[in-house]
């Protein structure tokens, strides 16, 4: 995994790959909680540190399901 420093003074190291979470949740076309956790865990094991979440994805469920990981950086929109 390759990383970049986010900003000039933050020191925050983020992965160049970003995991999208639009398909995380409980909708019929979504991964479900177990599937989302498996995808997220595999991404983190591969060195991923950055994921995209939004309050419009699956009624905000991806944000809640991935909010417990302190080793990641979230990008989001309101």
From TrEMBL:
Signal peptide: none
InterPro entries per record: NAD(P)_OxRdtase_dom_sf, NADP_OxRdtase_dom
SUPFAM superfamilies per record: NAD(P)-linked oxidoreductase (SSF51430)
Domain of life: Bacteria
Pfam families, per database record: Aldo_ket_red
Domain NADP-dependent oxidoreductase intervals: 18-62
Protein name: NADP-dependent oxidoreductase domain-containing protein
Organismal lineage: Bacteria, Bacillati, Actinomycetota, Actinomycetes, Micromonosporales
């Amino acid at each position: 995994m390759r990383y970049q420093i986010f900003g000039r003074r933050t020191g925050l190291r983020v992965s160049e790959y970003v995991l999208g979470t639009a398909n995380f949740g409980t909708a019929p076309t979504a991964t479900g909680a177990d599937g989302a956790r498996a995808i997220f865990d595999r991404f983190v094991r591969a060195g991923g540190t950055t994921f995209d979440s939004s309050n419009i994805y699956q009624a905000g469920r991806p944000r809640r399901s991935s909010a417990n990981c302190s080793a990641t950086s979230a990008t989001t929109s309101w």
